[in-house]
Design goal:
Number of strands: 7
Structural class: alpha/beta
Number of helices: 9
Largest sheet: 7 strands, mixed
Oligomer: single chain
Low-confidence stretches: none
Strand order of the largest sheet: 3-2-1-4-5-7-6
Mean pLDDT: 96
Distance between the termini: 45 Å
Length: 235
């Protein structure tokens, strides 16, 4: 695999350079619309009446804006590594008149907010992240009782859905690469990356070591994605 000797940060830049303008269409089409459902599951897991939420690796703001609309009295901060994506998110916020969102440029693992937050969310971040640092800083930023929510792709374990998953990526590699040539690297290299990632067990182990409570992992849509929730213990 070409990215095997790259750092995870380098993989992100390799995968996503020049993809910002087509991201929203690709994520909807290439998940067969399930991305919308998965993000609804994330929002449903957010504790009631939050005052501050941090959305890590916010991309073009799809989840960030959904959160901001669902909780209009909440201050939502989106953090994104790639300026290309962040500029699109800022333009979208301005066009939609969404005022309870702010955006910060930076790597999710490195951004530490001064104020405590009620919830930290992320979608499609965990497999690329330096998990020990990401989760330790999340624990530092969450208020006691605050919730961490992570969502990402997983390699399906069910034989039938694994076969469908493989067919899906073959279609992306053929037809998808012609429709969205800027995504060719992702379509060809992401399958091996997902086979090898251990983000889910590593996350669960790290959360336990960091003394989070109510740690829960839920398989989504028969296995191609998972949702992890955990609460910071009250002292």
């Amino acid at each position: 695999m070409e990215e095997e000797n790259l750092t995870r940060l380098e993989v992100v830049h390799r995968f996503f350079s020049g993809t910002g303008r087509s991201y929203d269409r690709v994520v909807a089409l290439c998940t067969w619309g399930f991305d919308l459902y998965w993000k609804r599951r994330i929002i449903a897991a957010i504790p009631g009446r939050p005052k501050r939420i941090l959305d890590q690796a916010c991309g073009t703001g799809i989840l960030t804006f959904d959160i901001a609309r669902r909780f209009p009295d909440c201050e939502v901060t989106g953090v994104e590594l790639r300026r290309e994506y962040l500029d699109i998110a800022r333009d979208k916020a301005h066009a939609a008149g969404i005022e309870n969102v702010r955006f910060l440029l930076g790597r999710a693992e490195d951004v530490l907010l001064e104020e405590e937050v009620d919830c930290i969310t992320s979608s499609y971040l965990a497999k690329y992240a330096e998990l020990p640092l990401l989760l330790e800083n999340a624990r530092r930023m969450l208020r006691p009782g605050g919730r961490l929510i992570l969502h990402d792709f997983t390699y399906p374990r069910n034989r039938l859905f694994r076969s469908l998953w493989q067919v899906h990526f073959r279609l992306l590699q053929s037809a998808g690469s012609r429709l969205f040539p800027e995504w060719r690297t992702v379509f060809f290299e992401l399958p091996d990356f997902l086979r090898e990632t251990a983000w889910l067990p590593e996350t669960l182990e790290a959360l336990d070591q960091l003394s989070f409570s109510r740690i829960r992992a839920t398989a989504l849509t028969f296995g191609p994605a998972a949702l992890v929730t955990a609460d910071k213990r009250r002292d």
